[in-house]
Amino acid sequence: MNHYSFAEIEIGMEESFRAEITQEKMDAFRLITQDSNPLHTNEAFAREKGYSSCVAYGMLTASFLSTLAGVYLPGEKSLIHSVETKFVKPVFPGDTLLVSGKVKEKNELFSVILLQVTITNQKGEKVLRGSMQIGVLEDEK
What we know:
The chain has 141 residues and is α+β, with helices and mostly antiparallel strands. The chain has helices at residues 23-33, 38-41, 43-48, 58-72; strands at 14-20, 78-87, 96-107, 112-120, 126-136.
């Protein structure tokens, strides 16, 4: 886990990590959210709709943005204020995702950073793009 302070963060700074979409993660997400849409749970239904298999939950994909902020940039001192995402392409179980964030702005007055975020699959295709506004908590005195 990273421990960046607001002063250590610079515009242009980047962090990324990889995450695999597994059937176990799909099942856990379904149990937590109770989203039983057949596009996510029934392979025959998903194929009938033109997909190669069940489609991963978009919000499961987007949930890795929490890890990006809370573990990588800024890490333990993060407090997510807002997240804006666009789902560009579907994600499927078995996909390996590269979750990336780049600091675009710093607000000195409020100790807030703006991250440009992208998630790409193992083929290098962008599956999600967006931005996050994240507060950077001060060290305890």
